[in-house]
Design a protein that fits this description.
Elements: E1 27-31, H1 34-46, E2 51-55, E3 68-72, H2 80-96, E4 101-105, H3 118-129, E5 134-137, E6 145-148, E7 151-154, E8 157-158, H4 177-184, E9 188-192, H5 194-198, H6 201-213, E10 216-221, H7 226-235, E11 241-244, E12 273-278, H8 283-294, E13 298-301, H9 304-310, H10 312-323, E14 331-334, H11 339-349, H12 351-371, E15 374-380, H13 382-391, E16 396-404, E17 407-412, E18 422-427, H14 436-446
Parallel strand pairs: 1-3, 1-4, 2-3, 4-11, 5-10, 5-11, 9-10, 12-14, 12-15, 13-14, 15-18
Antiparallel strand pairs: 2-16, 6-7, 7-8, 16-17, 17-18
């Protein structure tokens, strides 16, 4: 079979003219939640790229000294129509500033439902970019996410056997990503399996050509290790669109001649008190909250039912109790609870009401604590991170060094009147070791990060 590039007829039209397009961005990224955005940015920084993360679609060009911009949306669980609309808005801005390649960042556990939003957004981005073929893989081996024969594993478990089967918004009960994606997309979905990936970039490109000729529009890609991702990266050098978790990001900067550099992760020195806000109910985060409490941290649990009953007085008491301890110990405010507690609250309040109530309370507490001197803030959970960042009025983050795989420290300037800015860590609920909260704060203070 004669070989031709798999994306040969899918090259996007010329980028619009503009002040920044002459240099342009190597990579323009659209993330479907805020923790996923920092997860992606973290891997790009580790691979040598200078990265800025924006909160929502910016109104101005990016800094001229960055190689990639990650636009963080809060679109993972909203109506598919709105997710498509917001993603296309981000794409339009990224194209206007000259992004050479578009990366739609999805969760490493493929969080979605049969309605979307991964499939509808991917379809819409493909249409807008004029491409008829794209790959997708949530693989992130450093965090135990691997894909084998099209099936997603979380550690040693199939996705459908993991804690994700009880996710309150996107319960994942099917591990077969070809089947999951096919339910969401109007494109035919195929597979590039581990045997092909093991043969290297040329074999992957030839497989893409074959799938495209057979009418396949989206291909799930197996990846069992970082080596697999590094083989996949060069095969995507001319792809207009990549839909993936953050794992593939380790292999993309090299396509633009960029090598790892410590300077890419430099942030200002930290200052101020420390606090953690946790809204995730993942098993990983529940273990992290327990570890924080066991090792001397002060923890205040938010009960959604009590919050619904008491309202403003409850939030005011929580702020006062936490603020009184800021000078002596790190504090943690949490609504994290096991699956049964979450179900009980949802049954009484309604799923949407319970989630909105807790997010609003946690974001208000975060704002109040920053106003009272917190300069180092860790937020756990994608939805919670989105609510807190928006409430704090943060529009842009510079990405720093990694704490655990997929989780970096970041820095925002001029937040809530703090001239020193705010050091912020946005952690996906499923990420991080058991001692994550304690170690993150200690490492930032000591300046010792992996």
């Amino acid at each position: 079979m004669s070989f031709s590039p798999p994306f040969a007829s899918a090259i996007p039209p010329a980028w619009p003219s503009g002040a920044y397009v002459a240099g342009g961005l190597f990579l323009g990224c659209i993330a479907d939640d805020f923790t996923g955005a920092t997860d992606l940015a973290n891997n790009l920084v580790r691979a040598g790229m200078r990265v800025v993360q924006t909160i929502g679609v910016p109104s101005e060009p990016p800094d001229a000294d960055v190689d990639a911009v990650v636009v963080a949306l809060k679109s993972r669980t909203i109506e598919p129509r709105l997710a498509v609309e917001q993603s296309l808005g981000a794409l339009q801005w990224l194209r206007s500033v000259g992004a050479r390649q578009i990366y739609f960042k999805i969760c490493s556990t493929f969080d979605s439902t049969p309605r979307g939003n991964i499939g509808p957004v991917t379809d819409a981005l493909m249409d807008a970019l004029g491409c008829d073929f794209a790959v997708t893989t949530p693989a992130f081996p450093d965090n135990g996410r691997t894909v084998f024969r099209g099936h997603l594993f979380v550690g040693e478990q199939l996705l459908s056997d993991s804690g994700m089967r009880n996710h309150p918004l996107t319960p994942m009960t099917d591990s077969n990503l070809v089947r999951v994606m096919q339910a969401q997309s109007r494109h035919q979905v195929g597979l590039i399996d581990y045997r092909c990936v093991a043969q290297g970039s040329q074999a992957i490109r030839e497989r893409m050509v074959q799938l495209r000729a057979d009418g396949v529009g989206i291909a799930v890609v197996d990846a069992l290790s970082n080596d697999d991702l590094l083989r996949l990266g060069p095969a995507l050098s001319d792809a207009p669109l990549i839909t993936a978790g953050s794992g593939v990001a380790i292999a993309l900067p090299a396509n633009f001649g960029i090598a790892p550099s410590l300077g890419a992760a430099t942030l200002p020195a930290p200052s101020g008190a420390a606090a953690v806000i946790s809204g995730s109910c993942s098993l990983a985060t529940l273990a992290q909250v327990a570890h924080f409490r066991l090792h001397g941290g002060w923890v205040l649990a938010i009960d959604p039912l009590q919050l619904a009953a008491d309202g403003e007085p409850f939030i005011a008491r929580a702020i006062d109790e936490a603020a009184a301890r800021l000078s002596s110990v790190p504090v943690l405010i949490t609504s994290s609870a096991n699956a049964q507690v979450v179900r009980d609250a949802q049954a009484q309040l309604g799923i949407e009401t319970a989630g909105t109530l807790v997010e609003a309370a946690l974001s208000r507490i975060a704002v109040a604590l920053v106003e009272r001197g917190v300069g180092r803030l860790v937020v756990a959970g994608g939805e919670t991170s989105g609510a807190c960042v928006q409430a704090l009025g943060i529009r842009q983050l510079r990405i720093g060094a990694q704490i655990d795989p997929g989780v970096p420290w970041c820095h925002a300037t001029q937040v809530m009147g703090r001239r020193e800015g705010l050091h912020l860590c946005l952690k996906s609920g499923n990420f991080g070791a058991e001692d994550f909260f304690t170690r993150a704060l200690t490492a930032l203070d000591s300046g010792v990060l992996p």
